[in-house]
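R.M. (postdoc): so does anyone remember the format we settled on? I'll just put the structure tokens first.
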């Protein structure tokens, strides 16, 4: 028996105010039938975990992932510039290609790093260079990282190259992943619900619903008290970058475009299009230090040059939905607060295992 469930408040929050990046992961439950819990998780503009949808199946097969992704696709429909992030399991790769072919399937950089080190040996220098290669924005900086990487271990370089730079490197990503380069948010969700994994399925579902209820209430309350135009985390991000911006040299080209000198690297910033040749401004959709240096010159508001995804107004909208207890079956008739779908595709029962 397969079962998919999500809450309408989560669907509404995602479609209206969440960056279109979804991390997917599966974890084993520890009940008597050894079911697998599938999860789709996002991140709000305050860098908090935002749970989107869940499913329960018998195992991580091609069929199971195709089933979960099909139900998920029915919920989110066709979202522009959708990015799905996961590890490199063949069953997930096959499912995403079949069910959501118009999405960008990004590789989790953390899983890729772990797999690389497991294959080619632990090497701190290699690990650090790989992390830098993942996170740099410019192709020329990425190329320098990969040259250093190959000089240390050419086989490891061939391995990560074979995955496709566009799947794990910011510099080559054809779509915006913002600051979400791994599926760690899904792993964090798994940690948040770990205490329910030995419960029966109904207990697991109600525990997850309770987590949703608490998060939505607490975050709605906190968001309503914000005085800033941006979320708390966005303001912290801006504060760090603004300090760096004070050391940059800015030379106006027009009223809204500028040449910026960042040590030995020149670049241009266009405030009208909210882009820069350093690529950070356009990729993350939040003011980078180069944009902030130009905003300082014109004395503009930095909040006007950040995506609404980072705004306190969007944060309030995300958690505006209410999450109520499911109640007894007779009370659930006609309810539209929940999306619960169960089915029994061709599948085999898995043997019981001890927790």
């Amino acid at each position: 028996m397969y079962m998919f469930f999500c809450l309408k408040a989560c669907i509404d929050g995602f479609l209206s105010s969440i960056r279109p990046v979804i991390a997917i992961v599966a974890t084993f439950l520890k009940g008597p039938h050894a079911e697998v819990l599938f999860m789709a998780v996002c991140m709000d503009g305050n860098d908090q975990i935002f749970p989107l949808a869940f499913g329960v199946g018998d195992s991580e097969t091609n069929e199971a992932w195709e089933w979960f992704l099909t139900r998920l696709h029915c919920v989110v429909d066709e979202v522009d510039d959708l990015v799905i992030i996961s590890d490199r399991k063949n069953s997930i790769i096959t499912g995403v290609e079949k069910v959501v072919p118009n999405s960008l399937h990004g590789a989790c950089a953390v899983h890729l790093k772990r797999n690389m080190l497991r294959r080619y040996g632990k090497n701190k220098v290699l690990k650090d260079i790989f992390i830098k290669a993942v996170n740099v924005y410019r192709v020329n900086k990425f190329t320098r990282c990969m040259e250093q990487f190959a000089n240390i271990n050419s086989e490891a370089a061939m391995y990560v190259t074979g995955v496709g730079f566009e799947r794990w490197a910011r510099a080559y990503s054809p779509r915006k992943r913002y600051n979400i380069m791994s599926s760690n948010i899904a792993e964090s969700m798994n940690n948040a619900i770990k205490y329910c994994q030995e419960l029966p399925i109904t207990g697991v579902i109600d525990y997850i619903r309770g987590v949703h209820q608490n998060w939505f209430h607490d975050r709605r309350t906190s968001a309503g008290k914000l005085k800033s135009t941006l979320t708390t985390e966005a303001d912290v991000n801006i504060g760090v970058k603004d300090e760096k911006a004070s050391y940059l040299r800015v030379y106006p080209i027009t009223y809204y475009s500028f040449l910026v000198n960042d040590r030995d690297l020149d670049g241009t910033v266009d405030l009208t299009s909210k882009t820069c040749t350093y690529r950070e401004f356009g990729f993350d959709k939040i003011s980078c230090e180069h944009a902030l240096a130009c905003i300082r010159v014109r004395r503009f508001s930095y909040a006007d040059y950040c995506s609404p995804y980072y705004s306190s107004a969007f944060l309030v909208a995300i958690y505006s939905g209410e999450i109520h207890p499911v109640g007894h079956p007779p009370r659930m008739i006609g309810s539209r607060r929940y999306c619960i779908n169960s089915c029994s595709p061709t599948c085999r029962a898995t043997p019981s295992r001890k927790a």
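R.M.: ...and that's the designed sequence above, right after the tokens. Also worth knowing: Residues 331-338, 344-355 have pLDDT under 50 and may be disordered. Residues 201-224 form the longest helix (24 residues).
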